[in-house]
Amino acid sequence: MLRNSRFRLLVFVVLCLACACLVVRRFTRGTSSSGEAPSRFPLQVTVRHVVDGDSFVTAERREVRLLGIDTPERDEPFARQARSRLEKLILGKRVSLTYEKKKEDRYERLLCHVRIDDVWVNKLQVRDGLAVVYLIQPSTAFRSELVFAQNAARREKIGIWSLPPPSPEKYYLRSSKRFRFHRPDCRSIRKTSARNMVKLRTRDEAFDMGLSPCRDCRP
């Protein structure tokens, strides 16, 4: 009788451990079967190569895009500085990755917030004027923090905010469903319905809302 009781207890303990392992595995992967749940625990990776100011490749050869920001392209001012800063921060080091509701972009890059020690790299690039806020639906959990950092860089006129602004328009347009703003004659905004069209008075108003400039018309 005692032997049977011990056997049942052993089976119960083994089943409990198996269930616990399944739960931990599910959450550490940070995604549901639909791929839309935000990660609960950071993923640790080593940075193999820095592509530019907002993307890099891991030791496992997986490309990562810093979520919520956009740095200048290679032929634009401050592109080199943005890339150099990212290299100094993370190249060859272990970093923590967390993502929000949208895990990958259309190029199959991981969309992540990147942290090393106590430094939130995405926010630092914005705060130092080396990136603009670039929000992607539905991953907007840290919108206010990123916009706050951008506003500080704008006030101090550092990095990209030290450059002369593009030629102004009388007004700008945006879709209420997206986080970009456009010149009035931009082809990218033409298909937006009148119901979803929003008029903005200035570029400053757009940046205050966390909107980023269209890459086609460059307002």
Tags for this model:
single chain; 219 residues; alpha+beta; OB fold (Dihydrolipoamide Acetyltransferase, E2P); 2 domains; five-stranded mixed β-barrel; four-stranded mixed beta sheet; 5 helices; 12 strands; 22% strand
Please tell me about this protein's structure:
The protein has five helices and twelve strands. The chain has 219 residues and is of the alpha+beta class. About 10% of the residues have low confidence. It folds into two domains: 118 residues, OB fold (Dihydrolipoamide Acetyltransferase, E2P) (Beta Barrel), CATH 2.40.50; 50 residues, no CATH class. It starts with a helix and ends in a 6-residue tail after the last strand.
Topology at a glance:
Elements: H1 2-28, E1 43-52, E2 55-58, E3 63-66, E4 69-70, H2 79-90, E5 94-98, E6 110-116, E7 119-120, H3 121-127, E8 132-133, H4 143-156, E9 172-175, E10 180-182, E11 197-200, H5 203-208, E12 212-213
Parallel strand pairs: 3-6, 10-12
Antiparallel strand pairs: 1-2, 1-5, 2-3, 4-8, 5-6, 6-7, 9-10, 9-11
Overview in brief:
The chain is an alpha+beta fold. The chain has 5 helices and 12 strands.
